[in-house]
Amino acid sequence: MTAAVSVSDPGSRPMLARLTPPLVFFLFLIPFAYSDDNDLLRAPKVVLVGVVALCFGFVMAGRYRVRPEMIFLMLYGALLTLQQLVIPNGDLVFGLQYAVVMVAAFLPALTLAAVPWDLNRIERLWDLAIRVITVVIVVNSLLSRLFGLGETFSGSGGRYFGYLGDSISPVIVFPTLYFILSRRLLWAGACLLALWLTGGKAALVMLGLGLLLIPLTRFRPFVVILGLIAFVVIGLWLYPTVASVLESDHLVYSWNTRLLSYEIGWRHFQDSPVWGVGINQSMIGLQAEAQNLAGIRGMTRYWDVGQVQNSFLRTLAETGTIGFVLLLSFCGLLIIRALKTIRTARRHPRSNVRSIAIAGACWTVAFITSYQGVGWFEHVHPLFAWLLLFSAASTTAGDALQRYSDRAAQSRATMAREQAMRQPSSLAAAPDPIRGGRS
Q1: Comparing C-alpha atoms, which of 413, 334, 344 is closest to residue 377?
Q2: Which residues of 185-211 are buried (b: 16+ CB within 10 A; e: fewer)?
Q3: Could you tell me the pTM of the whole model?
Q4: pLDDT tens sequence across 84-132
Q5: Residue 1 in contact with residue 119, Cβ under 8 Å?
């Protein structure tokens, strides 16, 4: 699909046209910079990236429109600050710093949404950026498998994450969906190869749910939401059964580890149900607490528990009911926006823009509803950066399609009006067929 370049498109101005490709690759590739879990400089990196994105935004867009995410950020930042005043041993400076870094984490996505992209730019540059992401992931996984580079795991048939860490598995699902929708099967096959090398079982569930969402969105929104809820409930009910049937030590260890972390997270919430115990406070002494709990429960097959392995439960434990409601509201906003984007994009002919809109929306919904084995809701977590990126890219591509349709409809309506205005004048100039033109 192509369209005439809009005068509002930054690429239509020579100076800004040179900045468009660097901006695209900066926004799409920067989440890779947060892949190392042991990187002590991730918070400064997030702030630096946010400042650069802000500069790009003011140059390319001129201003930022008020979006619901900004309201969430203000409320969440206020919570993080006030929380330090009421919890034991609170640190007001830490709360302010955490709030600032959280705002910075949102700036790349807000910049992506603020720039008035033209369909031509999305069709070519965004597609190229997605292919670069795919090449990086596939090459990283292959090198890890062939030469043992980076993070590897010998159990369960071998898992090879390379230098991108174990958080890369769900990220692969986005380009897989994109290339399937674009009918580029060779690229999709390369993505599936990388997914197989990482051994991402939850990512495979994400992929299946993402593909299921495309026809499912033909139904009314409440039917889709009920279907998602049923998917989550059935998945939680079946997981231990599947683990026992397969007699997989990996699945049993994984399930028991999560159960321990969930119960500890719930206990922390009970200690402070309104404000929570404080950011990162749920991880203090967590391994010793998990060992004691495992002894009480009679569990022997589990791994070390390093965190509450669910974003919603960890948020409930660390920020209480207030933070939990804010996170639910934010995720609900992303899901509703994604479902609307899928319904809008499906009405358009096949193109890269349409595929980006649908793939990003399906990925967002599938990730939020099914990938809850890690606490990804942190400003420095790579999965949080990918979530913000894919969600913003999907919505922006969907909005661009809608603007194109609106302009096309407006153009057709204008042509119809002009034709209707010309028709009476031509009739007036014609001779009267009854009187033969005589006066």
Answers
A1: 334
A2: eebbebbbebbbbbbbbbbbbbbebbb
A3: 0.87
A4: 999 988 899 999 999 999 999 999 999 999 998 988 899 999 999 999 9
A5: yes
